Amino acid sequence: MKADRLLSILLLLQARGGIPATELAAQLEVSVRTIYRDVEALSAAGVPVWAERGRNGGVRLLPGYRTDVTGLTSDEARALFVLAADGAHKALGLGGSIASALRKVMAALPPDHRPAAERTSERILVDPVRWMQGRPADVELGELQRAVFTDRRLRLRYRRSGEAAAGEYTVDPYGLVSKAGVWYLVADRDGEPRLFRADRVQSATVDEEPVRRRPGLGLAEVWTALRDGVERVPDEVRVRCRVRSGRLDMFLRIQSAHLAGPPADRGDGWADVELAFRAVRAARALLVFGADVEVLGPASAREELAAAAAEVTRLYGGDGDDRG
């Protein structure tokens, strides 16, 4: 859009005074000829800008000419650049827009605020993907966004966890949530709140029918209730174990979702840790730590791990060549 491009040129020049036309063209993804035409348009509108052609030429703005973003403090400017680092804008199709917006904000900042904002963008990186979780699959949020912002119902083809085939669902969306790098659609289905992982949506069609949300509820309230329901462990099984002190930090990172309390140092090179699992069988995950973790109780958890270890021994104890 030409008006947006003209403003971008003005603010870039305001930040630096003079810029080679080739650099402007590359940043704004247009030709050098277009940049020169835009400079003529700005000049005709009364902006003190001119072009210098030739090897050392470029586009320049009269020193002292500027527009200010008033009332923006240094900390507020830094916060904007941290906010832009979370990657959510890319999934929403706003990657180019956030870059353009920040360029305009940077150009309009008071000069004494710019260094702190620039250092923030260079020194702070937010990676939403948890360790050893793998990078979430790319998702297409276009139709989901359209339904959310136009307050329309959605018809989904969606594959639920553990099911091979997708089902058909008509839902009433509240909004989209990014949780640890994974996008979810928060919606009602038949008047009940549901979570739909965006990467399991095989197709989405926006219905012409208006959304039917439950009165008095918004995205934040529905999301909080759904999240608490997922995190709450029903009929939890408490498992007591001891962990070798040298492996405790890694153990706590990997098992953070199951911790039932802080670890207690035994003073003998081990620490006592209590975990909460949904079922006894889930304690099998502790076998990955080998002899660095010993389950102390309950007896059912020790029996479960012993049975799992026996299965592994039978699998690898014989001659593998006999099984083809």
What does this structure look like?
- The chain has 324 residues and is an alpha+beta fold.
- The strands form 3 sheets. A 5-stranded antiparallel beta sheet has the order 7-6-5-4-8, with helices on both faces. A 4-stranded antiparallel beta sheet has the order 10-11-9-12, covered by helices on one side. It has a 3-stranded antiparallel beta sheet with strand order 1-3-2.
- A hairpin with an 8-residue loop joins strand 4 and strand 5.
- Helix 1 packs across helix 6 and helix 4 packs parallel to helix 7.
- The radius of gyration is 29 Å and the shape is elongated.
- 19% of the residues are buried.
Name a few traits of the molecule.
324 residues; elongated; four-stranded antiparallel β-sheet; 11 helices; single chain; alpha+beta; 24% strand
